[in-house]
Write a structure and sequence with these properties.
With about 280 residues, this protein is an all-alpha fold. It is about 80% helix and about 0% strand. α6 (about 85-115) packs parallel to α8, α7 (about 115-140) runs antiparallel to α12 (about 260-275) and α10 (about 190-225) packs antiparallel against α11. The mean pLDDT is about 85.
């Protein structure tokens, strides 16, 4: 893998990781366009450069992160406690557990059977329809921007529901951000709170996925690509994810998620049509 390919993949990862459009789907499509053959090393690379996107959210939401850390340190008497931060940390862990358990059980099968463009195109289309249905649902309820529970009102039981919904994103092309944001809205969070929780949950989920994949396929990835592409890709992912996260938070303060639904459906039609016409 050349450095410029790594840079492009890093930008794609950073831009799409937290937008509800599926970073995995875009990375597989980009690898295909760049003539990077499918392999265990390529799949591992697509996951490991998430490290840059993780750093981006840690930087953008550092206040929430520090509140969580202070809350847990307070429970063991090391720091002045932050009860709200502790509760948010509990909710993040509760939402993470379902995906952690099911991921360990089915990761190999999912990678073997579902990491292909056909699955991704179908997931893009279905996810786009789901976004538009959620927007319609909120409009029918006459939800105003900001209506719903805040993060402080989220309970661990509701977080577990979001966690099980997050498991749907194990299918490539679905988008972890999409299902957790929609899950948050469905359990009563405001759209802004659902987005924040999705981003914070993503830090733990992506960290676990990155460490797990690096442990299993990291040596193979380094042997095939070297450390250079990993560092270039992670740096590009960090910069582009910071921009994407800030843009999305600002955009959703005034608009619905409909644009992402239309984008997913259009992309599914274009890529699916190209595949049907024989472009590979």
């Amino acid at each position: 893998m050349d450095w410029w390919q790594a840079f492009i993949l890093g930008i794609v990862e950073g831009v799409t990781e937290y937008l509800p459009v599926s970073s995995t789907g875009h990375l597989i499509l980009t690898q295909h366009a760049l003539n990077i053959p499918p392999s265990e090393a390529a799949n591992a690379y697509a996951i490991c450069i998430q490290a840059g996107a993780i750093l981006a959210v840690l930087g953008v939401y550092w206040k929430h992160v520090m509140e969580i850390v202070a809350g847990w340190l307070g429970k063991v008497g090391i720091w002045k406690g932050d009860e709200e931060g502790f509760r948010l940390g509990v909710c993040i862990i509760a939402a993470f557990i379902p995906a952690a358990v099911l991921g360990l059980l089915f990761d190999d099968k999912i990678e073997e059977k579902l990491f292909n463009l056909t699955t991704i195109v179908i997931a893009w289309f279905v996810g786009g329809v789901a976004i538009l249905a959620t927007v319609y649902y909120r409009r029918r309820r006459k939800d105003v921007q900001g209506a719903g529970k805040s993060l402080a009102q989220l309970t661990w039981k509701l977080a577990v529901i979001i966690g099980f919904i997050q498991c749907i994103a194990m299918c490539p092309g679905t988008s972890r951000s999409l299902v957790t944001i929609v899950g948050g809205v469905l359990v009563g969070l405001s759209l802004s709170a659902a987005v924040e929780f999705s981003f914070l949950l993503g830090v733990l989920t992506l960290c676990a996925a990155t460490v797990y994949k690096a442990k299993d396929a990291g040596p193979l990835m380094v042997a095939e690509y070297g450390w250079g592409p990993m560092l270039v890709g992670s740096f590009a992912a960090w910069i582009s994810a910071v921009i994407a996260v800030k843009w999305m938070v600002s955009y959703l303060q005034k608009h619905s998620m409909a644009v992402f639904g239309y984008y997913r459906i259009a992309l599914a039609i274009i890529v699916g049509g190209a595949m049907f016409m024989g472009f590979r």
